[in-house]
Design brief:
The structure is a single chain. This protein is mainly α. The chain has seven helices and no strands. The longest helix is centred in the N-terminal third of the chain and has 25 residues, at about 1-25.
């Protein structure tokens, strides 16, 4: 009887331990495809920042966009910049209600006057969409250094001619 009790206790402890360890081991890598799609398609960030977020936007863009690959902003700061834009720069605000109150940099439209960032050329974004873009940037772009051929081929397909200029790192 005593042996069964110890056996039952041992099994219980083993199951409890496995329950705490297995979620960590079995957790799949986070998929950033949604944030990437938002970056390229809905928010059209690549128009100014470039497909690789290196600041080399489309030829028709006004140029001068930041290289996000070299950003030092943390997650909260990135969210704020995307939601609120950057006053007195071409960086638009993606929060439709930005500057209607003091949610952006503690300032209102009345206080900023003509320095209020414009609305984006496409669609505004929900906070969860901005968070998805931010998580994509933090995981796949920021701090990555120069654009590699692998990144180019991930975007444009294996063997794409336009990727020949990038190193094979």
């Amino acid at each position: 009887m005593k042996t069964r009790s110890h056996l039952r206790t041992g099994v219980f402890v083993l199951v409890a331990f496995a329950a705490t360890v297995s979620p960590l081991a079995a957790e799949p890598a986070k998929d950033f495809a949604y944030g990437r799609r938002l970056y390229h398609d809905k928010a059209q960030c690549s128009y100014c920042h470039g497909w690789a977020a290196d600041g080399a936007g489309e030829p028709q863009s006004n140029g001068g966009a930041a290289s996000l690959r070299q950003s030092y902003l943390n997650r909260d700061q990135l969210i704020e910049v995307i939601m609120c834009g950057r006053p007195a720069t071409p960086m638009p605000h993606f929060d439709e209600l930005a500057y209607t109150d003091k949610r952006c940099y503690g300032m209102t439209e009345a206080e900023l006057g003509p320095q209020v960032p414009s609305l984006p050329p496409g669609a505004t974004l929900q906070k969860r969409e901005v968070e998805a873009i931010t998580d994509y940037l933090l995981a796949k772009v920021i701090g990555r250094g120069p654009v590699t051929r692998a990144e180019c081929e991930e975007m444009f397909g294996a063997g794409a001619r336009s990727c020949g200029e990038y190193s094979k790192q």
